[in-house]
Amino acid sequence: MAIDKSDQPTYAITFGRSTSLGRALVSALLTSSQHSLIRILDPLESTGAPGPAPVFSDRISYHRAEFSDSDRTQLIGSLSGSSVVFHVDPTRSVQNESFGRIHSLAVGFTKALLSACPEAGVRRMVYTGSSDVVISGGGDICNADESLAYPDKFDDALSELRAQVEMRVLSANGKNGLHTCVLRPSFMFGPGDESLVPFIVSFARSFFSKTIIGNGKNKCDFTYTENVVHATICADKALSLDPISVSGKPYFVTNDEPVETWEFISSILEGLGYQRPLVRLPAKILLTAASVTELTRQKIGFVSFSSQLLSPSKIYLLSCTRTFNCSMAKTILDYTPVVRLEDGVARTVCSFSNLANGSSFDGRRELSEPSKARKFLGTGLAADILLWRDDRRTFLFVMFSFLFYYMFLLSGRTFLSALANILLVISVSLFGHGCLPHSVYGFAIEKIPPDCFRASEATTRNLFRLFASLWNGAVHTVLRLAEGRDWNLLFKAVLSLYILRLLFHLSLPILVGFGLLCAFSGFIIYDQCEHEIDMLIAAAFVRVELLARWIISKFPSSILDRISNFL
User: Fold this and answer.
1) CA–CA separation, 336 vs 371, rounded Å?
2) In percent, how much of the chain has pLDDT > 90?
3) Which of 76, 206, 344, 556 makes the best surface tag, with the fewest CB within 10 Å?
4) Could you give the angle at the alpha carbon of 371 between the alpha carbons of 367 and 374, nearest 5°?
């Protein structure tokens, strides 16, 4: 017996096949409403992203909706009989398209929908956009509510497009019997996420993978996809029950769990097998570089990776606070988050196994394995200072080192004069420390034990072994060069000696200053970016080898024949 579908509620969902939110909304409606019919209006194909796959059911009909004037009748027919249209923002899924295409899908499709809904008998529309429509510049937004106005200038073109769509939807409320409302999810993420999680992974695989932009204390509201779906369904129910009170308004939707942005990013990265960012980088430095790069790109068409990965808007996102108050959605729409943030992160990580560390990047050091810098420095005082394990102690050493550098080397003294002054200060300081009593006004003075200045037999033996090893290595290199067979070794030796020659031409203050800078920054940078630096060094050696072969190929054949005969 055929089922009578005349009394079944019918939902129309835009971009219900090509967006993760649309697919999740289709699945939720199929589960929550056992007798509903769903019409998917989508001019795009499925993205194939991980997460909810397109659902196939006899209760679903797919319509490749178009929005030109010639297809107006077809669009009205696709909407006819629907009680509500769930309009999903498509801009997250089509960011690689041309701006004209994105504008057509966002603004053009919305305009066509709003025109066709009254003629098709649709009385409700819920548009799910983004909180980006109220964000602009680098100022913090703390617990903002719906009274926050649109900015005079948007951070990027996509945010401006979303604002245009939102304003069109809200302005259409009450016209020709259509009631509309807008949801503003804050930084939506989840299985199949097309923008946030891929951006985080791209950041982890970039040169900036170990860095924290800003002070790392800024907070954001991140919203799990299932909670956005739940809010969308709640908005439709509220519109049907009390359209006068609900319609014509925007509503912020969040997980209601503000969290530090970098803590959220770190939880995603650690779940996918990447290392947690540790080194803080001032946001103003990156913002200046990104602004210059963006200006250069606009003027001369130059495209740099920084303009793709760290645009000014993304730097603001990573360094500024962005939290929103969803009390209005809770009160009017009866919305309550159904998935906690921690559970949402765990589900998202499981769905993005294709982006896990090692899926497309091999050869990275395991997180549990110590870096070469840690192996070289060991676990003593030097490692604690140079690897910045104890920030306070390292800061003191940096301050005193550069104080001595300024007092004795930048003053223009000769090497012997500077050395004598340093020894004089050390001698007077040690003598004065020795003259102090064991207690001064109740504060204990710790005396320096004599063993501190003595070298043990084991230390002396290891020191001589080190010198012997270096000497034997140098002799071995000289013997290999004397054989006249290893051209790669010759070019490496010549390049190294030439660099050493250039260094010896520098003055002592420059050499010492460069050494201090390398000591206090080089080890920590190499410890955090070992893989990237090793890759750059390997690439440099390959280039040098290719250059050497090219130079040899330019030699006359007679000389090459003589060399080959000699070898």
Assistant:
1) 46
2) 32
3) 556
4) 125
Q: Last residue of a domain, which of 454, 479, 511? A: 454
User: Has residue 1 been placed in a domain?
Assistant: no
What per-residue string of b and e applies to 465-503 under the rule 16 or more CB within 10 Å gives b?
Answer: eeeeeeeeeeeeeeeeeeeeeeeeeebbeeeeeeeeeee
> Is residue 4 predicted with pLDDT exceeding 50?
no
Please say whether the beta carbons of 315 and 306 come within 8 A. Answer: no
Separation between Cα atoms, residue 463 and residue 189, nearest integer Å: 56
**Element spanning 84, H or E:** strand 84-88
Q: Is residue 349 domain-shared with residue 449, that is, in the same domain?
A: no
Q: In this model, does residue 546 exceed pLDDT 80?
A: no
> In this structure, are strands 60-63 and 37-41 parallel, antiparallel, or unpaired?
parallel
Q: Highest-confidence range of 40-44, 63-67, 445-449, 456-460, by mean pLDDT?
A: 40-44
pLDDT at position 1: 34
Domain that holds residue 161: 10-355
CA distance 351 to 278: 26
Gap between the Cα atoms of 544 and 534, Å rounded: 15
pLDDT at position 227: 96
Residues 6+ apart with CB under 8 A from 155: 132, 135, 136, 137, 312, 313, 316
What region does 217 belong to: left with phi over 0, alpha with psi -120 to 50, or beta? alpha
pLDDT tens-digit series, residues 451-489:
666 777 777 887 788 888 888 888 888 888 887 777 777
CA distance linking residue 414 with residue 372, whole number of Å:
36
Residue 470 included in any domain: yes
Please state the rounded mean pLDDT for residues 183-201. 91
The torsion angles phi and psi of 218, rounded to 5 degrees, stand at: -70, 150
In a domain, 3, yes or no: no
Which of 221, 134, 232, 248 lies closest to 183 in space, CA to CA? 232
Q: Rounded to whole angstroms, how far apart are CA atoms 13 and 19?
A: 11
Q: Give the strand pairing for 37-41 and 219-220.
A: unpaired
Instruction: Please measure the distance between the N-terminal and C-terminal CA atoms of the chain and give it in whole angstroms.
Output: 94
pLDDT tens, 139-149? 889 999 999 99
